[in-house]
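[Meeting: bench + compute handoff]

Bench side (C.D.) handed over the final construct sequence. Compute side (W.E.) agreed to return the predicted structure before the next meeting so the bench team could plan truncations. Sequence as handed over:
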Amino acid sequence: MKRIYLSIIALALIFSGCEIDRAPYDALTPEDLDKSEGSLQAVTDGNYARLKTMALGWHRVMEFPSDNVSLSGTTTSHLIYLYNYQRIASNSFSTSFWTNSYQIIASSNRILETVPKGKSPASDQLLGENYFLRAYLHFSLVNVFGRPYSHGAENLGVPLKTDANPQNHPARSKVGEVYAQVIRDLETAESLLNVSKPNIYVSKEVVWALLSRVYLYMEDNTKAIEYADKVINSKRYSLVNTATLPVYPTLKPESNSETIWAIKFIPNADLEAGGYSNIGSMYSTIQGVGYGEMYASRTYLELVRRFPTDVRNKFIVPNYLNNGKLVAIYVDNAYQYKSVYVTKVNTDDYSYIEAGTTKMLEKEVNAQGLTEYYITVGGARRKVFVEAEMAARNGYPKYFIIKASGQEGQAQLWSPVVFRLAEMYLIKAEAYAKLGDAQSALANVNIIRTRAGIPTPGLYQADNLPANKTVLDLVLEERQLELAWEGHRKFDVFRNKRDMDRRYPGGHLSGNTPINYIKWADAFAIELIPESQILTHQGLVQNP
């Protein structure tokens, strides 16, 4: 078997693409790169084009293990092993993410080795973009296949590939070493970038956004705030307004004022298998396109539905039957969805029949003045959602997620958002919380909550926090609310040494040894190194 550590294609020659929306196709030599800025541009565009293939595995590896999602049963796809923490080393999605990431790294390395700095402002700009790509992909890889930095910088991370020699197969570096290289590359990128390009390309602000995230993950909170402020104070970006937020994913990325950097997917050209292989296909069925088998989790639903005016509710579209019937949906002791038919008695009262007897749903006004409903079943009081009867798959109500769909009117097209301005405010909020500045932390959280349409009673004050909640608890809740289905949640939980609680309905509870609670130190919280790499790369150590 040939040694395919980083991919034969990427290591043999560098391929170029004439535009970001075209796949790389033409082989260029190092001499070509050094002679022509057009060739350098073409190869760099090819690297951007490869990001689209990388992103398909990237999203599934990062988002499916979170508590934002609920798979409606089982599937033969390897995505189920990401979702249910039953890891396999041959997982096609983690393998694709690994190999495509290292392909881009290798291509960037050839450029960085071949083209000297200072040749021209144009070539320096492109060198900066490639330093960034190398940094971003190493950072993404180490967070998937290594333990969080906060668990110990001495833990094994991923191989640091900083040359284009196909015969050089580095062993796994320590997590701290990978982070150090990421920062060096980003600082170099910052010094070289000199053009404010559209947000589907790399500019200085994109570097600052990643540095802010890197320092947050390292728990260097002062630096995290510093770089988040650089992005905010650049004035290049603005939060979309409350009315626009629910249609954020449908906008052309370059037209979106909040997006700092997105991986551009092109209408018509990037609809894999008619859209069925695109990211949003698992989350919804739109215009007849999409599997629609993975839904918003009960955990996320209870969080976002605290305020009906929170427009982030609109990222979830229940698949109603439109038969005029109302149901009260709850979760039983076995973490299965159950429901009863209900009848609206008056403005805010509902009745139901139990064993031939008419009963009323219990209601309770919460601290924000909103009415919540409960039912007592089997001696236990359970919260219910009262809504129109829904279509279901294997007993799971179809709470479709549309945050990864609908770009420019195409059902399952979406350009994954890597950085946006809302995250910068939430990075500041988390960093301030950890520095003990509750007022500044909550002020940044309230910027996001206000934009989401949450009324004044739902905003947080340092002297009036919800019971049993710390400022950090509230920040992490807001990150979950705002950044759901964008690939953050798993890392947010484990890097803060918190456990992933998945005691809610979903296919992860199927089988003989279901895992519904993942402790932050559990071995299976970290993805396995792809088996193909272990077999062909001497000295590459597998995760426990």
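W.E. noted at the follow-up: Residues 499 and 522 are 9 Å apart (CA to CA). C.D. will use this when planning the next construct.
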